Amino acid sequence: MIALQTLYASVHLASVETILAAGVLVLLMIGVFRGDRSLVPLTWGTVALLVLAGIHLPIVPAHGATAFGGLYIGDAFSTFFKVIILAGAAVSMVLALPYLREAATGRFEYPILLTLSALGMCLMVSAGDLLTLYVGLELQSLAAYVLAAFHRNEPRSSEAGLKYFVLGALASGILLYGISLVYGFTGTTSFTALHGLVRGTGLADLGTLIGLVFILSGIAFKVSAVPFHMWTPDVYEGAPTPVAAFFAGAPKAAAMAMLLRVAVGAFGGMAADWQQIVTFVSIASMLLGAVGAIGQGNVKRLLAYSSINNVGFALIGLAAATREGLTGVVFYMAVYVVMTLGSFLAVLAMRTADGRPVETMASLAGLSRSRPGLAAAFAVFMFSLAGIPPLLGFWPKFSVFQAAIDAHLYTLAIVGVLASVVSAFYYLRVIMTLYFAEPAPAFAPAESRTNTVLLGAAAIFCSPVGMLAITPLVAAAGRAAASLL
Amino acid sequence: MIVAALAFYLFAGIVIAAATMTILSKNPVHSVLWLILAFFNAAGLFVLLGAEFLAMILAIVYVGAVAVLFLFVVMMLDVDFARLRAGFARYLPFGISLAVVLLAELLLVLGSGGVHVAPAVAAAPVMPGMTNIQALGALIYTRYVFIFQAAGMVLLTAMIGAIVLTHRQRPGIRKQKVADQIARTPATSIATVAAPVGEGVTL
What we know:
The complex is a heterodimer. By secondary structure, chain A is an all-alpha fold.
């Protein structure tokens, strides 16, 4: 029995989730009564809710605190990722406004579903138990399936939603099967207990290992790592662009955080076993992400392969399984979310003169002449994603490679550098199209000042100016990684 | 003890018989009804094992929801069952070989002395003097209240999602307007026409 006082303390530690859950119910009621014309006020209301939740992030002790009898963990790691999640969700919500109005599907459920998804992600990064992890993941995914099919009258969007749902349900089933195996062989689902069992008694039982493999497969689907990446290009292409922007940002960071927590926090004693898996997945993702993107004529598909590629790079840090490596992953995800959201903001600005959104590479040709600002921002994101040195995208790559070399994972580091050279080819091809190709018909002028401001902010963050942010970011990432170990 | 054994054989026998009838009956609606019988008797087996909660879930969820859904589907969809069953003889050898493989695996596992599972570090030990429904309730609303609430949010999301994806406002729907119906008076709805003999009336 939990005494009332501990319950109060638990709710206090989980204040972000409490605020989000209560707030989304209120906003849902407003939306139900006021209908779709409340989309704009609801969107800003939801942003205010996310900011409020961000302000109420609890001050956690250095080694973290648990709530609800160990089901929930609040530590520097979860706080770091919650900031990313809340910011990512807020930006994805705002950037969708002009698009939703244009596409005449401005349904008020959009911000509501996004907030529910953010709530699920907060649960994922704060999970202290496989049960919490699963429920959080389902909450996040279920909202995401609906969002992917948000333009249900468009066959592409419905297809994306259906594909995502069927494959996602399969991945959830695999994950759940792994969880049940682990529970069956160890008798517990709590991360702390698993950490003790798996390390302490040397119960690296074969059954637990098989369960772990299933769990890792399920999570690999969520971070879209090879060989569970197949859905990514199709879903990104078919889903409405703001939704694709959302998918590529916060959920990926949250799933990566969940992967770190499970691998290090729960199965730290089995590091030697999962390191092999993570190494393979990392190499495969880097290579496939780099090679698969080369022939793409659709910018959203290209960004999907780019995200697969980037997840591969981030996983290098996890394969190293050292404090430096984990810091690298955390730092990588923070920078990655900004770069991706920025790229998708640029894609959102791609509209023909009559306002229809376009996604082809060909339409980007000679953008530097008609829209020099947009082209420059695009170029900054591409250079940054490619990891060209003075830009911000270089530093997290550098830190994970450094960690891999320190951990004597030379093969991984070498493959990583090679893959990054290959991927630089297609990023540079985008830049070449932007600057040196014969101009295609000009795009419609920017319609949303907010999006322009966001785009500019993201571009400045990714430019060399962003190096100012490296020191505080790495320090925070280091604290987050330390609280995990 | 003998009563329990008798009850077990009764329930188990009916489950097997009903399951056999489910796959053998010609009429799909009868199949579903046999399936429901099988579910009920399986619930009886759970009660014998002392798992009342599972028994209730089986009766409520499987009989109340799943089987009724099946019934709806077989009654409303025009599925040609004769065609579905056409390949039965052709696929029989394949099916039998699958069954033999499964049987061999089962025997293998049983023969090797069964699976060794770590003794459960019971996360939720059974409290004395409590039925398992009470024990589950006591846990769900205290220790796992967080998960319980989060599961509620998952269901809410599912509901919102279903509405987003299926609800659409179609133009030209005629809705019942109760107020208009009540406000009708003889003056607005009755026309008195003097009908000439041998001719029709146009209204």
